[in-house]
Design goal:
mainly alpha; two-stranded antiparallel sheet; globular
Amino acid sequence: MSFGPIVVETVVIFALTLFAVNRYGDLRRQNVLTSVFVIVTWFLSFWIIFLLPIDISATLYEQCYKMQYANGSSKKFLGNGSGMCTKPWSYVDRNVLKQIWNVVYWSTQLLTWIILPFLQSYVTAAHFTIQRKILAMLKENAIVYGSLGLIFGILLIYVVIKGGLNSDSFNGIVVAASNTWGLLILVLLLGYGLVDVPLSVWNSSRVRRTLAHMYFKVAKLRSDMEDAKLKLDEVYEDVRKVAQTVKYRDPLRKHVDTILKKCPEGLISRADRGVDDFEDFDDGDKGGEYPTVSKLVTIHKKVITATRDTKRTKAQWEILVDKTMDLEDVEDQRSSSGYRFRGSLGSSSKIWRKCPTLKQTLDWWWKIKILPVVLMILAVLFGLISLCVVWSEASFFSTDPVLSVFALLVNATGATGQHFVITEAICIFSIGYVAVCAYYTIFCIRIFNYYYLVPHHTDENSLLFCAMFLSRLTAPLCLNFVGIIHLDSHLTGSGNTSTLETETAFTEVMGHMDLIPFIAKKFNVYFPCCLILLCLATICRLGSRILHCFGAQQFFEDDEMSADYVSEGKEFIKIERRRRGVGGGGGQGSKDVERSKRSSSRLLNRSSTSAPVELTTIKFSRRNRDGDRLELIPSHDEYDSGGDGGSGAASRRAKDLVSRGVFDDM
């Protein structure tokens, strides 16, 4: 028994988990409990994927040993009929594996169904005291757990009526209910991810199409930014009124101060103007509009949500603009013959600053010539693997003949009793790809713009939501993979010799769904059918077309409204280039910047000898998504003002225009 490989895998996965959590969250600012539980949950979810191949290779070795020495039928099992069964390099005893699986599985179940939901409710609660937050947490989860308890009670009664109840059957009900829910969600995620992962990689190799899609995203995100800014201004107005109403020494003043800490400094200074620190609180001065604790909690919740949305959309904007500008540079220089890539973003590494010519040459070859070809090859490879996954899911119940591609690969490598390293590599790659397709949907999905992962700007609520989904999906994902490689005889429903009789330690811990017959018998039929239908719907973009019909704008290359969004996004990128003072990869963009600066200087010189000219920000108008009404889009500087209004904000915008040039935002 060797613990070296499993220890190395554990260290590497833990390091990758820390990197992922730090990339999407902020370990220095977010709550300590949130960071700890998210790290533990993500680590266990990723660790299961790499632990299962070790369990599979150990199971194949034990099966080989049993058939060679106990039954004397080694020639039938060993494909080449020669050689002894070689112990895998990562072999771990079955009893040890069962203990590890028990700890890992029940820890993830405890985290995903009890700890994380309550912690999520506590983090999102806007109350001002710990007691009130705990009470709100209990109320919020009472309805959810009441519904789950009702379903569990019905299943419990069903098992009691069918054949009695003991500790094993009780655990079996818990595992079966959790896995059934996880498998249903897994079908939805895989139906999208198995198609969209290779398709998105293929589209990334098409620079013009990707650039048009980026323009579309820029236009939509700009609209989201303005919506977030408007909501933020409305909430800040409520905060200002409350801050001026609640006087000094008022018992509610400490709650108002807590709300003001979540606001920018400019708002705090304006809100404090109407408050006299020397005016004592008078209980008789309370009017009908005087705020209560519940009203302050509502305002506090709105401030947290509006501030979070504004910061998140601003961070998304910067990331999206950088990607779009880089793609513009690639598109501009595809036909250049200088073999040097002149990017607009520059390089942040000191090493490349010392040898810019080498970096420009390497970037040109990589971004212009090599990367598109690599993406096309990967897209074709991923498409073939997705096709194999769908075929294996649809045919895993067939054991004579064996139709599952992954079952054939595992039997071909593991049946020799000597190539367990190849078996583990195949399992890691296969499980990893299926996990990427499932997790890709979680990491990229936007649920009503409420749960969304943004690098370094993801709120604690979204991190906890993602952790819950990962922990709920990982065990069902592995259970499904064990079934498609025919290591679960109960799931395949056959005792044929082509199906290995020895089960994995993971399967022994998880048990089977035989306690609930209507799930165990029907699931093998409905699971592959639903997966195939969802994959076909994703290929036809059925969901996007339905959303498009209901007014939610989706990107289509031949759609007129999408073309309007693309044109608008292109104009916004031009504004960003002028604001940053960068050109378009040595092309037309740099000429526009120089022309803008010369025009600005001429106008300023002319205006200095004439009457004062009022500087205003020219705003773009765009078609509203709800009709043909035109609405004004505030400029980027108004968005960056942080909610400051009045003459101070106007004067700052005027100074910005003078320093950058009056025509920079046209």
